Input
Amino acid sequence: MNADIRIKVGLGSCGMAAGARKTKDALDAALAAAGLDIRAERTGCIGLCFAEPLVEVIDGGESYFYGRVDEAKAAQIVKEHIVGGKPQQELLLAEDELNFLTRQTRIALRNCGVIDPESIEQYIARGGYQALKKAVCELTPEEIIAEIKTSGLRGRGGAGFPTWFKWNACRNAAGEEKYIICNADEGDPGAFMDRSVLESDPHAVLEGMAIAARAIGCHQGIIYVRAEYPLSIERLEIAMAAAREQGFLGQNIFGSGWDFDIYIKAGAGAFVCGEETALLASLEGKRGMPRLKPPFPAQKGFRQQPSNINNVETLANVAWIIRHGGAAFAAYGTEGSKGTKVFALAGKIRRGGLVEVPMGLTLREVIFDIGGGVKGEGAFKAVQMGGPSGGCIPASLLDTPIDYESIAATGAIMGSGGMIIMDDATCMVDMARFFLDFTQKESCGKCVACRIGTKRMLEILTRITKGEGKPGDIELLQQLGEDIKAGSLCGLGASAPNPALSTLRYFPEEYAAHIEGHTCPAKSCRDLLTYHIRPDKCRGCSLCARKCPVGAIDGELREVFVIDEAKCIKCGNCAAVCRFGAVEVK
Amino acid sequence: MAQSTQQVDLAKLEPVLAEYAAKPGSLITILQHTQDIYGYLPREALKSISGATGIAPAQIMGVATFYAQFRLQPVGRYLIMLCQGTACHVNGAESISAIVTEELGIKDGETTADGLFSLKHVACLGCCSLAPAMMINGEVYGNLTGNSVRQVLRELAAAAKEEDKA
Output
């Protein structure tokens, strides 16, 4: 056995849900049984969600990535590779799967899946807290802000506002006490990069916050994190305690006389709290309802004091920029969108997970070259970006470069970077209905246009998916959409119609098929489907009848079976179980 | 539900109120601890929070009903949080919900008569690559199919029976 061999297991939420803890236990048991005193090490999420549980063996300076490692494979890896010295080729990730990693440029995710998130020593060994030292001991606050300005860093939470501008406004605002707030209320369905960073590299966020605090001139930081992310909270607590012990948080940091500390506030589940003023209300223990701006949070924020709010991914870039210089960051990306961006690939994608790439790559490169395209046999139909505030981008626009302006021009938004891939079995009317259902529930109710308008849009979309759409519904949706945008105070309402408007723009024929033809081209809207058994293909095996939950299928053995449409609930069980392809869906 | 109100032991809430009642802006934190203690927000507890903090009961109810995390009714022994995120929706979360309803006879927001299971549709759990996914008492189950959901529910029901015997 090689003396400096190391074994790492990705223990993020996703990995653990896929069974990574059992994998680690199995590795450790096999190592102990082999009489070895090394153990598998914990690391965060490396982003290859599609291959979890993931085990990395570092042997003689080479990395071997084993994917989908269950307990049996864990034992095999220890026996054959660790003890026997023979890497197990058939268990290693294939080369095209490894593309997922090699095509990335990792800045915000630089330590994710590399270090143990609960070890400050490993963070420091990778250059951690050097940027804070530089910011405190060598740079003036103005120089820190200038460096961030050079980098071109823009807010990664959705709006894409220049980070330096916010810091500068808060620095120049008059107030006794100022606050730096990390927005870790990742409510956007389909986005999980913030969770991954918090779980895998919490110190990067703490260091970014401390640098921002130094630049702004404040002493108190708050992390507002979703209560649904218990592991993030746990690892942040551990990281904060370690940082205090080492003097990176607390009093007189680096002997400068400057004090700074952070506490965590757990959110309670409200999408609207991603909006800055709603988040501030929630931090004060109130209903998370937005208010009119100005005054902006930089003037009057938390407790009426100047406050700066940045997203997790934004802050995770800060220490890297201070350490390597703003110009190094700006060397990546496009003219208007500098640096890299993390994207969460999910939906009908072959290789789902987290990828960080320079801005300006095309959608095609990210979805097909890195993500491997659509999973299964379907064809690519659209990618949804920006969650409930965004839109669906059709296949014809796959060569759009990913930057804030180009994505906005398609009718979607960059948002926090969630990319949901859809194939031809995804109904675009149903997608619009899905998002309006979400925003309608999450609307705080303050603005009439949003509160009632989203409900009306949802009703119209629901009736279209049931085949009860009326002539004029499309025009009504468009009109309502424009009115809601104009009549809403915050970003939730102003963007809530986007999923409907963007699908109306690119997929009008699907709406028409539902309204005029009472059919769903994607065969996804249940109320518009009918199930038949084809007499020429049915062998009379009775499997479908036995699997039908409502007893709607009848027939004699070895005769053709028949579905009673009046009883059928369109669950699709029969089509799923038939071995002869005899169940036809129309 | 009526019997549950009689079992509320307000003494358990005292340490929470002692720590947070005087700190401004702590209402959400207090409610989170209260729910950790009782499994839901009992009316009696809300009254005593109001008494200790001086926040009007109406305002407390306003906050308690605003956020998805809080519930005003007790839940079953197993709380099934079924993810309604985009990736789960695209991968068939709706049919998973139908299967839970078929198996247990409860819909979103309901609890089985034996108090064993509650079903709650939740916003994205952030496990999008494991879609469709659900979380039961903190444990995430991913890549669900009709059969795997039925199996998990039956195993949990059996485990509960074993526990009660022991």
In short: Chain A has five domains: 6-97, 120-330, 340-423, 428-515, 530-585. The first strand of chain A starts at residue 6 and ends at 10. The mean pLDDT of chain A is 95. Residues 340-423 of chain A form a domain with the Ubiquitin-like (UB roll) fold (CATH 3.10.20.600).
